[in-house]
Amino acid sequence: MVRLLLFCLLLSLTPLGVFPQTDAAIKQRFKSKNYTVTWGNRPSYPADSELVIGYGSGHGGSLGWLRFRPIEGGVEVLSIELDPGWHPSKSKWSPDVVPVAVKRGPMAKQAYASLLHDLAIVKSGRLKAIQRNSVSMSSANFWVASRLVFRDRTLLNWNWAGYAGSFDEIEYAKPNAAVDLARAKIAKLPLKEHSLSVEERRWASAKFIEDWNELSAREFYWWVAERLIMLSGQTGDFTVLPKLREIMSGPLTGSPSDRRVYYAINAITRITGKDVRPKPVEEMDLESTRRRVLDTLSEMEK
Predict the structure, then answer these.
(1) 183-198 residue pLDDT tens
(2) Cα separation, 15 vs 131, whole angstroms
(3) CA torsion, ordered 83, 281, 193, 80, to nearest 10 deg
(4) To the nearest whole number, what is the mean pLDDT of the chain?
(5) Confidence (pLDDT) at 102
(6) Distance from CA of residue 25 to its chain's centroid?
(7) Please, what's the b/e burial string for 91-124 (b: 16 or more CB within 10 A of its CB; e: otherwise)?
(8) What is the DSSP letter of 218?
């Protein structure tokens, strides 16, 4: 009876959304016909580790980052999400529509500790593929990524993009679980619309360059790479211009390389505030337009 009263008291003192999922509930996520799982020792992640989550839907048009940054008194959560939707068009290039929603808000240390605990459970799973006579595939493509860093030491780094299916499930099970757990934790947080600070734009620029260098050449990440360029134009600062200039100067060989040049031209225009593009933008000639943009950048560097 005393134990029951103590448990009820703990529940009453615990803020909503802070009480962690049970280990069993997290492990239940890994019930699959495509792999087996054994559970090893759970790592212990420092409370002041910084977590960054990436996610997106290929057909859905979205791409987002979540940054969990421990600060004095709690954790600061920054949400950046690109969601242009679909705009029917008969133009040469896709409409230059780049709506980005930026929100920020506090997260209690206990809630963040709970999230780190959940990620540690996911990390402790050892997955082994099951040989099957059939393979299932889906047209749903998505991107899920999680990186946890403590004092420049990477504690976990999961990154996967592709099509949902039985063959690849063993590869995306952990990053997908991590993204779901993180997004569930912030679902009820009081995040408010926010204008990016100088520090946050510098971070977003570094994040773009890091992701681009790591992901842009991977086969199933082409749409992730394109949306990263779009996102950089709305969230980056001048430190991202050398990388965008490099992308814009790439060979014109047809899709998707030409689309990357188009998106890079638009991103540079947004960051510099110098618009030398012809109108309508969606009908631009890439070669002549990028020459004008390069000339503009050279003038700004003088």
Answers:
(1) 999 998 999 999 999 9
(2) 44
(3) 50
(4) 91
(5) 98
(6) 25
(7) eebbebebebebbbeebbbbbbebbbbbbbbbbb
(8) S
Q: What is the pLDDT of residues 265-292, one digit of tens each?
A: 999 999 999 999 999 999 999 999 999 9
Residue among 277, 283, 194, 205 nearest 238 (CA): 205
**The token pair that represents 185 in the structure block:** 């934790």
Cα–Cα distance between 121 and 206 in angstroms, integer?
A: 29
Helix locations, 187-285, DSSP H: 198-215, 222-235, 241-248, 257-272
Q: Is 1 helix (H, G, I), strand (E, B) or coil?
A: coil
Specify the 3-state DSSP secondary structure of 180: helix
* Strand intervals (E) in 72-152: 74-82, 100-107, 125-129, 137-150
> What is the C-alpha separation between 245 and 249, in angstroms, rounded?
6
Q: Which two tokens stand for residue 43?
A: 């790592």
Confidence band (pLDDT; 50, 70, 90) for 87?
low
Q: Which amino acid is at 243?
A: K
CA separation for the pair 270, 258 (Å, rounded): 19
Is residue 151 pLDDT above 90, yes or no? yes
